[in-house]
Design brief:
The chain has 155 residues and is an all-alpha fold. The protein contains one helix and no strands. This is Endosome-associated-trafficking regulator 1. Keywords: Coiled coil.
Amino acid sequence: LKEENASLRSKINKLQIFSETQADKMRKLERKLEENKIKEEKEAQDLEAMVQHVEQNLQLMTKRAVKAENSATKLKQENALLQVQLKNYKTENEALRSGQSASLAAVKQNADVALQNLLTVITNSRSSIKQLVSGAESLQLVADLLKSIDSISEM
């Protein structure tokens, strides 16, 4: 009985030691579990913050995209208006060029008429100048005759 009692006490001691070892392991595992929970909560909070940050960035990007689309639409409208204006200016420019060439033709025609008139005046003035010179020579002859007659009558 003593031997059995000693054997049982020895087993109880071994079981108590094993139980304490298991209890230490259990406490360590519980601490580790608690640390892991805290770590997971922190990671979850970090992920939540990251998700919020991404959502904010998406909202900003959406606003920028809408603004860019509006700007692109406005620029397209402005471009179309400028294209119409360019077409109008080209048409006006062509009209001015054709008017200018018509004006140049009219100027050329007027210059030709003026040239013809000048040539006629030159021709007429030459004959008039010849008549004047001839008349002046005749007058000189008459003056010489009169001088001669005057000289003769004095003599």
